[in-house]
UniProtKB/TrEMBL annotation:
Biased composition (Basic and acidic residues): 618-628
Stated role: GTPase-activating protein that catalyzes the conversion of active GTP-bound Rho GTPases to their inactive GDP-bound form, thus suppressing various Rho GTPase-mediated cellular processes. Also converts Cdc42 to an inactive GDP-bound state. Essential for PTKB2 regulation of cytoskeletal organization via Rho family GTPases. Inhibits PAK2 proteolytic fragment PAK-2p34 kinase activity and changes its localization from the nucleus to the perinuclear region. Stabilizes PAK-2p34 thereby increasing stimulation of cell death.
Organism listed in the record: Cnemophilus loriae
One Pfam match: BAR_3
Domain Rho-GAP: residue ranges: 384-569
Protein name: Rho GTPase-activating protein 10
Keywords: Cell membrane, GTPase activation, Membrane
Sequence ranges of Low complexity compositional bias: 635-650
Top-rank lineage group of the source organism: Eukaryota
Length: 749
């Protein structure tokens, strides 16, 4: 049962039961006061904890934003770039979330803490003051009453009457105060129900708003999260392939280090101990140096290096070698020694010690010492060739796979038993038994055995299907550039392959495209097929860790082939596609969902220069070929911020065009170094003997046309001139306005 109501009539009786009910109301208010006090304390602790959490989250976000993954090699895949940018995205997500949390912390103060403090101070505090007055008047009233009752009846009548009047007035005042106090008690009991709960409701409303905004942020983030998961999975798949290749290379080098030495411009390099002679009492010391030697120039360099002192490097010493002589143990109390003599110090030999006798022999041979050792290199030849049997093998395997196992999960990833694979290959590669092998109807050969045999055959070719010569050029576009420029570059390079290689590649890629169409069943997406066939179709001539780091880009090239096989193999590449120039451009590193800061204006490209212009040597005036380079495929992926040749116009390469910002046009020719200007002039100065040919060869400048949504063309006139075909109205002070027919000469308007 709840509190009993306080009747106003009971104020006049002031019975013990009335007093008991008043004390019950007072106890309830005291309990409410303690509750609000604890709630305020907990609320302030909650705000402090929220601020601490927000600070920790922000610090965590700053740590995510400030870290950047380093990559091995000279470029990243798109997946790796997005993974790298993901930390910044995570940081932005937390930052946005913490902004909402700060709003929540402020709202808790305004909607919960302050209203409860105000209620406790103004309402409960007022009741406490009323209670003090009530208790004081109670004490005064009953003290006066007792004193009055103790008056002697013998007092004068007038004195007794005055005493009666005084008691009566005091009793009325007590009753009035009692009525007000009872009214206040009951009022506060009813008021607390909404005065206390309403701030709590407001607090929860703010909390729900925070959670809802978090949900909205998470919903907006979901698309990016799904894309990132794909990026991560693709990178993990490539990592698995790369790791196996690295381990295989490591094991090869472990078995025979000398056969896998990296090819470089040094004839010999490695550590040697060099004898440093001291004055007679101190004898001599031996200091470890890293030494290099180039036979063409006979230059020998050595750098002191001590691993145990934290890798301290000393000063390099360089000299020209005149001769090398072996030291026998009867002339020195150390093994594996030989002497060198420098041209600038005749008669003063330098004694060096190798790590072993074999190491000394290698140094002696490289240095043309008296004892030279011949190193035998074993070359293994494989019988796999791109001949009639080779095409038959591939076609038979593809037909069997598409007939029997196109929907098998993990097709081409599940490996067959090695002995069975070798047996099938031996039968297929034998002209006598090849036609007798029935792969489509025979249950003797599992699909995984057939796919493994096909991959093994392709890997056994003396040269990869996409050739050693074009390996580097295929890798370049995969490292940078727009998707369209990558496809164009690969398209162009495929048609540079030998005819048999191109024919075999077309057969294989068409099959892989068919496999990818059944990815819902076989789980072999284009990315998964790229992981499997990247190392199969492409491999560098020299096996190094740096080359293995490019495996992921080999995979991308195979993905491009599969996704665009119809265009690449069924159509000829653009005849105007340049031998890609070696202009340096940076890859598009911008992560998805990156929004620019408010108020930041996107720079609108002012002009686009078509770089597909190709001139014959006869069309070029007086300048040598190397001064007007047509370029190489490196233009698609080079990441150096400095152009490879100074005669190229400034700007940003986009596919086959160079996008120039405002201000670049005017300074293009005038800012060139003196030695580069003749080649630029000759490139722009096109003979006018054949006007039709001249107009066809002239470069065209493109300007966005806001009125039509198309590009405005500016036709080039001879001698570094351009004529406007459409009018252009500037949208910014740094941009140009011109009318139809306006002439641009030497980069000026």
């Amino acid at each position: 049962m709840g509190l009993q109501p306080l009747e106003f009539s009971d104020c006049y009786l002031d019975s013990p039961w009335f007093r008991e009910r008043v004390r019950a109301h007072e106890a309830e208010l005291e309990k409410t006061n303690k509750f609000i006090k604890e709630l305020l304390k907990d609320g302030k602790n909650l705000i402090a904890a929220t601020k601490n959490l927000s600070a920790a989250q922000r610090k965590f976000a700053h740590s995510l934003r400030d870290f950047k993954f380093e990559f091995i090699g000279d470029a990243e895949t798109d997946d790796e770039r997005y993974i790298d940018a993901s930390l910044h995205e995570f940081s932005n997500f937390l930052k946005n979330l913490e902004e909402q949390r700060e709003i929540l912390a402020l709202s808790v103060t305004e909607t919960l803490i302050k209203p409860l403090e105000r209620f406790r101070k103004e309402q409960l505090g007022a009741v406490k003051e009323e209670k003090k007055k009530f208790d004081k008047e109670t004490e005064k009233n009953y003290s006066l009453l007792e004193k009055h009752l103790n008056l002697s009846a013998k007092k004068k009548e007038i004195q007794l009457q005055e005493a009666d009047n005084q008691v009566e007035q005091n009793r009325k005042h007590f009753y009035e105060l009692s009525l007000e106090y009872v009214c206040k008690l009951q009022e506060i009991q009813e008021r607390k129900k909404f005065e206390c709960v309403e701030p709590v409701l407001s607090f929860f409303q703010g909390l729900f708003t925070f959670y809802h905004q978090g949900y909205e942020l998470a919903k907006d983030f979901n698309h990016y999260k799904m894309a990132l998961q794909i990026n991560i999975q693709n990178t993990r798949n490539r990592f698995e392939g790369t790791r196996s290749e690295v381990e295989e290379l490591m094991n090869k080098i472990r078995r025979n280090p000398q056969e896998h030495k990296r090819a470089n411009h040094f004839t010999m390099e490695g550590y040697l101990y060099v004898q440093e002679k001291r004055p007679a009492p101190f004898g001599s010391s031996w200091v470890k140096h890293y030494c290099t030697y180039r036979k063409e120039t006979k230059k020998f360099s050595m750098i002191p290096f001590e691993h145990r002192s934290g890798g301290k490097v000393g000063d390099e010493e360089l000299f020209v070698l005149t001769y090398c002589t072996k030291r026998n143990t009867d002339t020195i109390d150390r093994r594996f020694c030989f002497d060198l003599e420098a041209s600038d110090r005749p008669g003063v030999p330098v004694t060096m010690q190798a790590f072993s006798e074999e190491d000394r022999k290698l140094w002696m041979e490289a240095l043309d010492g008296k004892e030279a050792v011949s190193i035998i290199f074993y070359v293994f030849f494989c019988s796999a060739q791109l001949d009639k049997i080779g095409f038959t093998i591939i076609k038979k395997c593809i037909s069997a796979v598409e007939t029997r196992g196109i929907n098998d999960q993990g097709l081409y990833r599940v490996v067959g038993v090695s002995s069975k694979v070798q047996r099938l290959l031996s039968l297929l590669m034998d002209s006598k038994t090849c036609n007798e092998v029935d792969l489509e109807n025979s249950v003797d050969w599992e699909v995984k055995t057939i796919t493994s045999a096909m991959k093994q055959y392709l890997r056994s070719l003396p040269e990869p299907l996409m050739t050693y010569e074009l390996h580097g050029e295929f890798i370049v576009p995969a490292k940078s550039g727009s998707p369209e420029s990558r496809v164009n570059a690969v398209h162009f390079l495929v048609h540079k392959l030998p005819e048999k290689n191109k024919e075999m590649l077309e057969i294989l890629v068409k099959h892989l495209a068919n496999v990818s169409k059944h990815a819902k069943r076989n789980l072999m997406t284009v990315a998964n097929l790229g992981v499997v066939f990247g190392p199969t179709l492409m491999r560098p001539q020299e096996e190094t860790v740096a080359a293995i780091m490019d495996l992921k880009f080999q995979n991308i090239v195979v993905e491009i082939l599969i996704e665009n096989h119809e265009k690449i193999f069924k159509t000829l590449p653009d005849a105007t596609f340049p031998e890609p120039i070696s202009m340096s451009v940076s890859p598009p590193n911008a992560p998805p969902r990156q929004s620019r800061r408010q108020g930041q204006r996107i720079k609108r490209p002012l002009a686009v220069y078509n770089l597909c212009l190709e001139l014959d040597d006869a069309d070029s005036h007086s300048s040598p070929r190397e001064d007007t380079p047509t370029g190489s495929m490196d233009s698609l992926s080079s990441q150096s911020p400095t152009p490879a040749f100074s005669s190229s116009p400034p700007g940003l390469l986009d596919g086959d065009h160079l996008i120039m910002d405002s201000g670049d046009l005017a300074g293009w020719t005038t800012n060139l170094p003196a030695q580069s200007r003749p080649s630029m002039v000759s490139w722009m100065n096109i003979p006018s003997a054949n006007p039709a040919a001249t107009n066809a060869a002239l470069p065209t400048f493109f300007f966005p046309n806001p009125a039509t949504g198309t590009d405005r063309a500016v036709e080039s006139v001879a001698h570094r001139k351009a004529r406007a075909v459409y009018p252009c109205e500037a949208e910014h002070s740094s941009e140009l306005s011109f009318q139809i027919g306006a002439i641009f000469e030497d980069g000026k308007y």
